[in-house]
Specification:
Blueprint: E1 18-20, E2 24-25, H1 28-38, H2 43-46, H3 48-54, H4 64-79, E3 84-89, E4 92-94, E5 103-115, E6 121-131, E7 137-141, E8 144-148
Antiparallel strand pairs: 1-5, 2-5, 3-8, 4-7, 5-6, 6-7, 6-8
């Protein structure tokens, strides 16, 4: 029987391999749940009145940390379920605002693969761009992950 949803082993990828995830629309509930659990209760994210009176934004803002989390939620099940071992770090840049109601997807390219000196695993880096429904990049990040190799 074929197991569905299993991620790629590092040998399945090569530098230059490109992928695109499915989409996800950000809801107001997403924002309030995230700020509640994280404690990021900044008025930029919780007060429509504050946004209207004190900013030039024409919509309810989404925290960049939530955009990153949603991006990982799109990437992980599509690429590294059961094959990812560890998230080791990344550089991240927020390049534009994200608003409630925006629909996001992630486009990525494998930029580095370094087999580990021991064990059947490798360090894999991707360059990921989070893109909204207008084709605008709102966040970029380049996670370095430890990934499993194909069973020997």
């Amino acid at each position: 029987m074929k197991l569905l949803g299993h991620g790629f082993y590092y040998q399945d990828w090569s530098v230059g391999f490109e992928f695109q995830t499915l989409t996800r629309t950000v809801s107001e509930t997403d924002v309030y749940s995230f700020v509640g659990v994280s404690g990021m209760t900044e008025e930029l994210f919780t007060s429509k009145e504050y946004l209207e009176k004190h900013t030039d934004f024409a919509g309810q803002l989404v925290p960049g940390a939530l955009v990153f989390s949603l991006a990982e939620g799109l990437v992980i099940p599509a690429t590294i379920s059961r094959t990812g071992i560890a998230f080791l770090g990344c550089e991240m840049n927020i390049t534009g605002p994200t608003f409630v109601g925006d629909t996001l997807h992630v486009e990525g390219v494998v930029s580095e693969i370094k087999p580990a000196s021991k064990g059947n695993r490798a360090l894999v880096r991707t360059d990921n761009s989070v893109i909204n429904q207008n084709g605008e990049t709102v966040l970029t990040y380049n996670p370095l992950r430890m990934m499993k190799g194909k069973p020997e």
